[in-house]
Amino acid sequence: MLRGQRTFRFTAVVVSRLTLLLYSVMFASLGRQADGLMGPDGISPLCRRPSLAARICAIVALTACFLPVCAMSGLIVALALVWLSVVYRGYMQADFLHFQWDALAMEMGALAAIAALATIPRSDVVQEACAALAMHCFALLGFKLMWGSCLCKLFSNCPEWNFGTAMQHHHRTTCLPKPMARRLHRWSSSFQVSKAQVLATLWVEGPFSLLALLGWPLGRAVCACLWCTLMVTIAASGNYGFFNLQTCVIATALLDDRQFGQSMVSCPTSRNLQTWFLLDGLPWALTFCYWAMYMPATVSSLYRISRAQPPEVCAEAEELLFSRQLACRYGLFASMTTSRDEVVIRELHALPHEVAQQAERDGLASKAHDDKYWVELAFPYKPGPLNRAPPVLLTHMPRLDWQLWFVSLQWEQSSKTPEWFQQFLQCLRERRASVVNLVAHRGQHPVQELVLMQEPKDTRVTFEDYEYCLPSQLAITKTDDGWECGDWWCRRAPIPNLKSVEEPVDEEPAQKESIELDEAPMPSGSRALGAHARLWHHLKHSWGLLQTHVGLISRRSVPDPAILILGLLSTIMALTAVMAFCSAAPVPRPKVETEGKRPVARYPAPTAGELASASRQMHNGPDQGARGERQYPPTGGAGPYSSVSVPAASAASLPPPKRPSHVGGEAGAMFSWSPRSSEEEDTLCPCLVVPEGMEFVFAVREVLADQRQELSFSVVDLEGSPLSHIIVNESGSGPQCGIFLQMLDREPLASIRTDMFFEKPRRLPEICLPSGEVFCSLERDGSREYVLRDQHQQKLLRLQGNFRDKAVKVISKSGQLVALSERCIIDLDGGTHYQVRVAPQTDAGLVLCSLLAVDKIEGGRLR
Question: Quick one: which H or E segment has residue 40?
């Protein structure tokens, strides 16, 4: 090794072993609660014995991280990380594993597997190159995490972050606080202290994070120290499980071997061709190929985080990795909540007189009637009893207690609770052992231990405002304004101004965590372009890091030409294998908070005008309308559907294109568009009937909610170009209250009357013709199905699937699949969209109106 050269061989070993240790912590934490969360009798049943599998994974990870450093152990560590990531990804389909740190763990696992490969090569040059590229990927991941967290605060327009008062609320409203949080909250109550903390946070997450991309060793060390310091301050007041450890492991990757005070033992270069290919060529090829994909994918993520359009090559690389959960976008604490509303569950039980008196004295029970008492259930980690101090959790992530914090936020937004919460209450009433174990804990009150062994007579759920108890309130049990006081907490129960289900919600509450960064509002064009220019300027400095990491040929002796040629050939072979893997159909992404967007194939969709023109030509004959030929989708376009040239002057037959679909059915089921005659369908919008041989693909923004709204947006194609307009005007009453579908020239197509949806009793919306005449009505058929019926009560369409995740199938009255919807990513737009694919000879206007009506009904369930 030449003097002055910086290497990352020891750093790669440390990071890969720390990631394994982190995985052991994650699986150990998951194993303690997996039966209650995902077991066969759990809240969201997913697998048979998940806790056993999680404990086995924890043992494997813990064993592998202590293996001695050698080529074989590097291979074992890499394979273990890949296997653990696959198992963890399978668990992420549950409702309790879609947090941002779960996605971060998946991305870290893949990078750590690449870092573990750096110990396999026998050549020092190849070892240093592999380790340098792997640590460069970790540096990009850390920068993406911090940069996204900074920009999401700036783009969210949250007044607490804008005016510097966020830290006056953070320590009080954190999900699972620690005992230190009360003291930090009092210290941060000063505006100057809060503003200083806000500025320090934004500087560490923003400008100082650029040091991670520079080739300056001291700057990278300073950046690592700042990141770790930020994590320590966050962990001082809140129990965030293993998230703080994840960020510290990423920060460790910024240090080189010299800063660790360690150096790896040099290995002689093997001249045997077969040995060189297995130990040197293959690890180098795999590392280089993954870095070559991860680098542009990260650049694309940074562009999108900055609200700018990424280059096409970078966007494609991001989609390939994004669909496999190997490259995500992050944005932590986008907005700050200013109140703490806790879920309080009380059950009605018959208690012995002595036990009831003791529970009343301790504030855990209140008399209902006769010998029946309302007993409050105290969860092990979330705030509950007023005299109980908050817990201190180093690595454990109590997912049920954490998720309960978001239930009150969703209630204030939509007056509804999530489906998993209803299932949890049902399991709790049935006293399922695995679910009861999530509530029972060591040191619980004897009355709770007693009531958990018997089924309740009734259950009551309230949302109560919690505050830290002030020193002046320690001697008071109840204040004049209704606050109950204890040693640690004060609460006011129940909140008097909760919104009822029928009452419209005026404004949405700020949320502590932004699960999807793209839900932040789109800034102005100049602001986005400015962020784009600044971001590109800072990214150019990463070349210094690349030169430091990979510039080995100019500093070291050049290997033999034969070795270089063989290395090039092996790289090409590995790249071909990787591209073949990427060209396969991606595995459907699990439900994520967050995460819920999946890249889709992009090819031009016909505009509403083109579709209407083609439809008129098909119905009126070849002499009416322009002649020509349009390919849809274009030849060579990326997409799972067949590409057929359709003459505009005739109705050419199209072989039914097929695609695997997981929407509302079993995995791997095959659906196909079946050609049908136009007489079989009752038509709402004749000009929007999809011609035979074509399919209509468009995207709809997720903005409708189950409340009165006044807004407008466009139905767009997958490139973001408008196809038609949607006007939502629900301020009035009668036919003027509804959702109106118009073409680009403002010609009315249809409307959805919603005034009856806001009346008592509630009735579902009706779909009307442009004249105002009712065309069909919507009926609910179970929790996962809606039916459209005409004025003669005949079925027109049936909608079924997961309406919350926009995974919906539209089925005709003859039982044929005519449309599919799923979430997608739209360029040049920061909002959340879902795409709709409409089959040939189907009324796209009726499909769109039915989906919009369901969006209005199910709007309260939007994440």
Answer: none
Please name the residue ranges forming H helices in 621-690: none
* Residue 816: burial class (beta carbons within 10 Å; 0-12, 13-18, 19+): middle
Q: How far apart are CA 852 and CA 724, in angstroms?
A: 14
φ/ψ region of 415 (left if φ > 0, alpha if ψ in -120 to 50, else beta) reads left
Distance between CA atoms of residues 302 and 152, nearest Å? 12
* Percent above pLDDT 70 for the chain: 73
Nearest to 321 by CA among 628, 74, 114, 560: 114
For residue 722, give every residue at least 6 positions away whose Cβ sits within 8 Å of its Cβ, in sequence order, or none: 714, 715, 716, 744
Q: Looking at residue 481, what is its pLDDT?
A: 66
SS3 of residue 80 by DSSP: helix
* Spatial distance between the Cα atoms of 602 and 817, rounded to a whole number of angstroms: 22
User: Which of 853, 838, 849, 581 has the alpha carbon at shortest distance from 717?
Assistant: 838
Amino acid at the residue 95: D
- Tell me how far apart the alpha carbons of residues 711 and 704 are, in angstroms, rounded to a whole number: 9
* 545 half-sphere exposure, CB direction, 13 A CA radius: 29
Give the whole-angstrom CA distance, residue 434 versus residue 572: 51
Helix, strand or coil, per DSSP, at residue 837:
strand
DSSP string over 505-532: P-SPPP-S--S-GGGSPP--HHHHHHHH
Domain coordinates of the chain in residue numbers? 9-334+517-583, 341-492, 675-861
- For residues 508 and 705, what is the distance between their CA atoms, to the nearest angstrom? 11
CB 692 within 8 A of CB 840: yes
Q: Is residue 439 classed as helix, strand or coil in its secondary structure?
A: helix
Distance CA 293, CA 135 (A): 15
Tell me the residue length of the chain.
863
CA distance 140 to 243: 18
User: What is the pLDDT, as a whole number, of residue 487?
Assistant: 85
What is residue 366's three-state secondary structure? Answer: strand
What residues pair up with 322 in beta bridges, in sequence order?
Answer: none
pLDDT digit string, tens, across residues 793-821: 888 999 988 887 788 999 988 888 899 99
| All residues at 6 or more sequence positions from 662 whose CB lies less than 8 Å from its CB, including other chains | 588, 668, 669, 807
Q: How far apart are CA 470 and CA 863, in angstroms?
A: 35
DSSP summary character for residue 210: G
Place of tokens 């509303």: 341
pLDDT digits (tens, 9 = 90+) for 96-115: 888 888 999 999 999 999 99
Could you tell me the fold of the domain covering 675-861? Porin (2.40.160)
Q: List Cβ<8 Å contacts ≥24 apart for 790-793.
A: 790/682
pLDDT at 563 over 50: no
- Per the CB < 8 A criterion, the answer to whether 1 and 263 are in contact is yes
Token pair of 694, please? Answer: 């074509």
Nearest to 290 by CA among 634, 720, 581, 56: 581
How far apart are the C-alpha atoms of 718 and 525, rounded to whole Å? 20
